[in-house]
Amino acid sequence: MQNRRRLGVALLLLGGAVLIVSAGADVMGLGKAATAFGLKQIVGSVAGAAVTVVGAFLILQREIP
């Protein structure tokens, strides 16, 4: 159970970081145009959100006796 919880925390942090960087790439100067939300940003944001959800699920999941 402890390993699953640690994996969940790691995925939650990693997914959140990917989501933040992807969504804010234009503001941080990583994107091409500050007025458009590009395909790579969309893919990164969706992937980051999915990894974050999986991490949260692993953290909140209870052990079945």
Explain this structure to me?
The chain has 65 residues and is mainly α. It has one domain (2-60). The chain is built from 3 helices and no strands. It starts with a helix and ends in a 5-residue tail after the last helix.
Write the layout of secondary structure elements.
Layout: H1 2-23, H2 25-28, H3 39-60
**Tally of helical runs:** 3
What would you call the structural class?
Answer: mainly alpha
Q: In sequence order, what are the helices and strands, one letter per element?
A: HHH
What is the distance, rounded to the nearest whole angstrom, between the alpha carbons of the first and last residues? 11 Å
Strand coverage percent: under 5%
Shape annotation? elongated
Q: What's the total count of β strands?
A: 0
Poorly predicted regions: none
Provide the number of structural domains: 1
Radius of gyration: 15 Å
What is the assembly state of the chains in this entry?
single chain
Biggest β-sheet description: none
Give the proportion of residues in helices.
over 70%
User: Mean pLDDT, as a whole number?
Assistant: 87
